[in-house]
Amino acid sequence: MKTQAQAVIIGGGVVGCSVLYHLAKAGWTDVVLIERAELTSGSTWHAAGGFHTLNGDPNVAKLQQYTVELYREIEALSGVSCGLHLTGGVMLAGTPERMDWLRMAHAKGRYLGMHTEIISAAEAKRLMPLIDESRFVGAMYDPLEGHLDPYGTTHAYAKSAQLKGAEIVLRNRVVDTVQRSDGTWDVVTEQGTIHAQHVVNAGGLWARECGRMAGLELPVLAMEHMYLLTEDMPEVAEVNASTGKEVITALDFEGEIYTRQERGGMLMGTYERAGKPWSETVTPWDFGQDLLEPDLDRIAPSLEVGFEHFPAFARAGIKKIINGPFTFAPDGNPLVGPVRGLRNYWVACGVMAGFSQGGGVGLALANWMIQGDPGFDVWAMDVARYGDWATLATTNARVKENYSRRFRIRFPNEELEAGRPLRTTPLFDRLKADNAVMGESYGLEYPLWFAPRGTEPKDVFSFRRSNAFGPIGEECRTVRERVGVLETSGYAKYEVTGPGAEAFLCRVLAGRMPAQGRITLTPMLNERGKLIGDFTVGRLGPERFLVIGSGPAEQHHMRWFLQHAPASGVRIDPLGQRMQGLSVAGPRARELLQRLVRQDLSTAAFPFLSIAAMDVGPVPAIVGRISFTGDLGYEIWVEPDCQRALFDALWSAGEAFGVGHFGLRALNALRLEKSFGTWAREYRPIYGPVEAGLGRFIRWSRPDFIGADAALAEKASGGALRLVTFKLDARDADAIGDEPIWCNGQVVGWITSGGYAHGSGVSVAMGYVPVALADARDGFEVEVIGERVRAKPLPEPLFDPSGARLRA
C-alpha cells in the first residue's frame, strides 16, 4: 500500500467505486480506495438492484438518468457485466390523488428529456400482466427502469477505475483520519498511514463512524429493509414465453411495494410503515456480508395489499426473505459535498438508491473536488442542507418517518411532523395561540398561515387550492390595504467586520457595497458565473456589515465564505438565532413604526434601502427600510430576549391601523405578484445573473468578483434563458414549480415557482424560457396537473410596476 495519495476514498460499495472511477476518468489517477473487507461488503451486496429515473427534485432526476446511461460505458471499458436488465416499468396509481402526482411527474419528465407515458390501468395490465387492474386508476410507464447485478456493477466501476490508474486496497479498515496543520490528511489504517490531500467518506453503513473520526456527526441512520424472492411462477413463464421478454418492474404506491422478475420467479420489496432502525447509535465494525433476521409480521400489512394487487404472488411459494440495513438521510436524498470547516474533507453517503444515484453522485463529487464546483445544481443532495441542529435523535426520528413515507404522497402544502418542534423563536407560543399553522425549515418553526378564530389550525393536504386559500387571501389584503406583521427569524444573518470586510465582500459578492447607513441587494456567483446566493447587505459602520440571506442555505453559504476568506483582516460571524426578526409591511407601515421610534422615518430622512440602529418602543433594534412583499415596509432585527417586547409594541401601536398577521405563504403570493425571485427557486446554480434578471445588481464597472469573467461573457452573449412571469388561466389549481412551459405545441421551458396573487386576483407563475422567446406574448401554456392552461407573459409586475409603493 502506498503512503502518499492525492485522494483517499473510504468505502468499497457502489458509491465509493463510482467516486473512484469518476476521479480517475477526470485525470486524478493518484487515488486510492480503502475497503475494510471486500467490495460490496456493506449494503451493496444485498441490494435488490433496481434503478429508476424518478425523483422529486428534477436536478437529482437528471443525475439518476445519467447513472442509468453510464452502465453501458463501464461495461465496455471494464469488460465486467453489470447484469443490466432494462425492462421498463410501471408506476401504479390506486387513487385519483396519486394519479395527479404521476401526471405531475410525467410533466417534469418532459423538460428533462425523459420519455414517460401516462397510461390506463388496462394498458398497465397489458404491460405487466401480474397486476389486478381493478385496483388501480392508472399508471405511468417509464422505459428507463429495470434492475442489475449489484456485485457486477460495483466491480465494473472498480475495474474501470483501476484501468485508469486508481488503486484499491481491500481487507484494511480505516481506524482514524487526522488533519494536519496544512489541511492535508493522515488516513490511519490497519496496514499503515496514507498521507492524502483529500479524504472522501463513502463509508455507507459506517459513514457515521468514519465521520466521527473527523469530529462529525453526519445525519444518517440505517433502516432494516426486507424483500422476498418467490419460487418459480407459471405466470412469469407465461409472460416470458408470450412476449420474449422479462416481466417489467412495477411500483405500487398504495401497497408500498416494488416488484421485478428474479430468474423464474419474482422479487417483492416493501417500505413498510412500521420501519425498524438498525444500530441507531453505533454500527458494529464486525458486521459484514450478513443479513438480519426476517420479520414477516412487520411487513405483513404491505404484503397483504401486495398479494391483492398482484394475485399471482398469493399463489407462489416464498423461496427466501432478505432483510438487510440501508442508510438514509432525513429526507431520503444523499449527503454529498465538502464539509464546512474541514478543508478537503468530502462526503458521499446516505445514498440509499445507489444504483439509481451512484453514478451521478460520483460525477458531481469528482467535478467538485477537481474543478471546485459540481457542475450541476446538487442543492437537494448537498450535505450543507443540514446544520448542527440535525442531531442523532432528530436524524433518527426523521429517517424513520421518511422510510415509512417513501411511497406515500408528499403534498405541496404538507409539513412532516417527526422531530418537531425543535428550534423555536420566542414568539412560537404566541403565534400558535393566534392560530398559526406552523411549518419548519432548517429545523426552525415558522408561521405558514393563520387559521380563522374558532377553526382548527390545520392544512387540508391537496395539489389544488386548499382550506388555506381564503385565509391567505385575507393576509395578503391586510398587507396591501393596511399593515401586516411577519416573523422573519428564519433568514440567515451574518455580521462581517474588520478592516478587510469590504474587500472580502467585494470579492465574494457581485454587487456594489453600500455606503454607511444604506442597503444594497447583491447576487453571489460561482466561478462559472452562476447564481449560488442572493443577499441583502446593510452597512452599519465603516468596517461593519449585516448580511441577510436564505436560512436553509446558511451552512452552504458559510462554507463558501470561509473557503474564500483571507487569513486575516475580516471576521464572519453567522448570527443564526442570536438575532430575531419581524417585518412590518403595507401602506400604513410607516405610520405604525413612527409611533415607536424617535427618528424621522419620512422618505426624505429614511428613504428606501436605509438601515440604522434605533430603539423601537422599549427595544434596541436594527431597522432596514426594505420589504420582500414589494410594498412599503421595514425589517426589524433584535436580540432574542427582546423579540416578544418588540412584537407587543408593534401590535399595540398597530391596532389603530388594522394590523394583522401574515405568514410565509402570503409572503410567497405577495412576492410573486411583484415578480420577485427567491433562492432555490428562481436563483440556482444553473442560472446566470442576466438570465435571472439580476444584471442591474451586478458591479459591472469593477468586475473583480468571483465569476466575473463568466458573468461578463453572459452579458455579452445575452445568455441562453430568460426569467418570465406568467398569468395563468388556472381554475382550482395553481403552478407550484417544475411544471413544463409550452409554446406553440412544444415544451420550451419550466416553471420555477407559482401561486395565486390574491391582491390582483390571478394565478401567477415564474419560469425560464429560451431568450429567443423572452419577448413573445402569445402561444404559451403551462401544464398544471396534466392540463395545459393558457399562460400570458407579463411585461411588468402585477403589483406596483413602477415601485412607487416600495419607495413611498
Describe the protein in words.
The chain is an alpha+beta fold. Among the domains are: 4-328, FAD/NAD(P)-binding domain; 492-576, Alpha-Beta Plaits (2-Layer Sandwich), CATH 3.30.70; 683-807, Beta Barrel (Elongation Factor Tu (Ef-tu), domain 3). 27% of the residues lie in helices and 28% in strands. It is built from 20 helices and 38 strands. The strands form seven sheets. Strands 4, 5, 6, 12, 13, 14, 15, 16 and 17 form a nine-stranded mixed sheet that branches. Strands 1, 2, 8, 9, 10, 11, 18 and 19 form an eight-stranded mixed sheet that branches. Strand 25 (531-541) and strand 26 form a beta hairpin. Helix 1 (14-25) packs parallel to helix 5. The protein is globular and about 80 Å long. The model has no long low-confidence stretch (mean pLDDT 96). Residues 427-701 form the GCVT N-terminal domain. One of its GO terms (molecular function) is oxidoreductase activity. It holds the Pfam family FAO_M.
The structure class reads alpha+beta
- Under CATH, the topology of the domain at 4-328 can be stated as FAD/NAD(P)-binding domain
Largest sheet: 9 strands, mixed
Unreliable residue runs = none
The number of strands is 38
Tally the helices: 20
GO molecular function, one term: oxidoreductase activity
Domain FAD dependent oxidoreductase: 7-368
Keywords: Oxidoreductase
InterPro entries: FAD-dep_OxRdtase, FAD/NAD-bd_sf, FAO_M, GcvT/YgfZ/DmdA, GcvT/YgfZ_C, GcvT_C, GCVT_N, TrmE/GcvT-like
